[in-house]
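Per your request, structure below.
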């Protein structure tokens, strides 16, 4: 999954993460559904369908990676990278529905004083599900960190939601005979955790779609690059970053000595843009102002 320069290939890594997710989730669905039918547990069967829903979100991620990896064209000069944010919103929406389903089901169980009963087969199926689903979540989180792909991060939370739902089932198996309410209370707690994850995913996706403020680290790095070659003659300010997932666009202003002619000012700005692209892999566009011009 790495390129010749040692950097991770975000498209291939995304396909691997989503593809593995689809295959594993289908196998887990079959295992848990069989265990549910065998033991007569409605909770296990519901958990199996929850697992299968993860495959749907992973398929959405595959389509998002395919669409976002398309090259820029006349109608979309900045590329199609923001399909990743759109997919993250969709997966976040699915996660929110699952959280609501957890919450409403748990409240109903609690209000009706219902205890959940499981068979021994459920223990093995549930334990396997927890380990495998958390493993998928960790792998997806790793790929998301390396590629900065928000839709994969959202899918990772989807995996974790399934692992957490299986934890509820396992907890119910362990202590249900002592506390009839344990399944419903744990379900409520986990649903609140999932609502928080949904909020964070959607907030981050919307923030990137609307545009974000350039970080202090990014600004300091740009100023450091500029200071290497232009110590006294360049003053950078008014930074704006535009995130397109597959690449970033940076716009900012520089103040130059008013004695420079147009050709000299253009040469300096172009050199700075080239340095930023080489060192930070960010496409920069610079607006030039005379040094004594007010902001």
């Amino acid at each position: 999954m790495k390129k010749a320069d040692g950097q991770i290939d975000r498209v291939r890594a995304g396909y691997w993460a989503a593809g593995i997710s689809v295959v594993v989730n289908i196998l887990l669905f079959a295992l848990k559904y069989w265990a549910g039918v065998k033991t007569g547990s409605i909770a296990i069967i519901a958990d199996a369908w929850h697992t299968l829903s993860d495959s749907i979100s992973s398929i959405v991620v595959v389509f998002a990676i395919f669409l976002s990896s398309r090259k820029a064209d006349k109608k979309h000069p900045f590329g199609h990278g923001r399909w990743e944010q759109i997919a993250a919103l969709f997966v976040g929406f699915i996660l929110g529905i699952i959280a609501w389903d957890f919450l409403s089901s748990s409240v109903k169980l609690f209000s009706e004083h219902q205890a959940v009963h499981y068979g021994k087969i459920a223990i093995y199926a549930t334990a396997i599900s927890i380990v495998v689903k958390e493993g998928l979540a960790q792998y997806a989180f790793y790929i998301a960190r390396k590629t900065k792909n928000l839709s994969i991060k959202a899918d990772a939370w989807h995996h974790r939601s399934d692992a957490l739902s299986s934890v509820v089932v396992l907890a119910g198996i362990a202590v249900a005979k002592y506390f009839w309410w344990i399944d419903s209370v744990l379900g409520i707690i986990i649903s609140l955790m999932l609502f928080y994850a949904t909020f964070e995913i959607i907030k981050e996706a919307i923030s990137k779609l609307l545009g974000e403020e350039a970080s202090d680290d990014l600004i300091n790095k740009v100023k450091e690059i500029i200071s290497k070659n232009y110590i006294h003659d360049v003053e950078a300010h008014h930074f704006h970053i535009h995130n397109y997932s597959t690449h970033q666009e940076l716009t900012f202003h520089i103040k130059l000595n008013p004695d420079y002619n147009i050709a000299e000012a253009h040469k300096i700005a172009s050199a700075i843009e080239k340095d930023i692209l080489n060192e930070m892999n960010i496409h920069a566009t610079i607006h030039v102002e005379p040094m004594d011009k007010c902001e």
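The beta strands are 235-243, 248-256, 283-290.

Regards,
D.
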